[in-house]
Structure formats: structure tokens, C-alpha cells
Amino acid sequence: MGLALEESIGDNDAVLDVGSLKFVVERGLLPYVDGAVIDYETTWWGENTFTISAPRSSSC
């Protein structure tokens, strides 16, 4: 799972409105992003990052 800027929305995409943001997700992945939390943080050394916690996904 990752973040990327999308130029267009495909036929197989769902759009999730969260506050003033819109997230584009492939429909088949919706069960995996249900309950996910995306956090933006600045580390103590000044790096800006996104952290994604998705309880229904797993990685190898």
C-alpha cells in the first residue's frame, strides 16, 4: 500500500472524501483500507513523512 498523486480517476476506482481531501482507491482494495489511518508527521530531524496504519492489510 502506498501513496501517489493521481492525474485521473479510473473506472475501477472509488473516491473517498475525507475532510478537504479526496483519496482514490482501487475498488478491489477497499476492504483493506477500511479502518486505515494516515498520519502526516515531521521527524525530529526535519523530514516530512506519511505513516499508514492499515489493520486489515499485511505485508510479506
Overview of this protein structure:
- The structure is a single chain.
- The protein has a two-stranded antiparallel sheet.
- It is mostly beta strands and 60 residues long.
- Helices cover 7% and strands 40% of the residues.
- Strand 3 and strand 4 (48-53) form a beta hairpin.
- The mean pLDDT is 84.
- It has one helix at 30-33; strands at 13-18, 21-26, 37-42, 48-53.
- The two termini are 12 Å apart.
- It is built from one helix and four strands, in the order ββαββ.
Helix content: under 10%
> How would you sum up the major sheet?
2 strands, antiparallel
The first-to-last residue Cα distance is 12 Å
> What sort of overall outline do the alpha carbons produce when their principal axes are compared?
globular
C-alpha-based Rg, rounded: 13 Å
What's the helix and strand layout?
Layout: E1 13-18, E2 21-26, H1 30-33, E3 37-42, E4 48-53
Antiparallel strand pairs: 1-2, 3-4
What's this entry about, in short?
With 60 residues, this protein is mainly beta.
List descriptors:
60 residues; mainly beta; two-stranded antiparallel ribbon; two-stranded antiparallel sheet; 4 strands
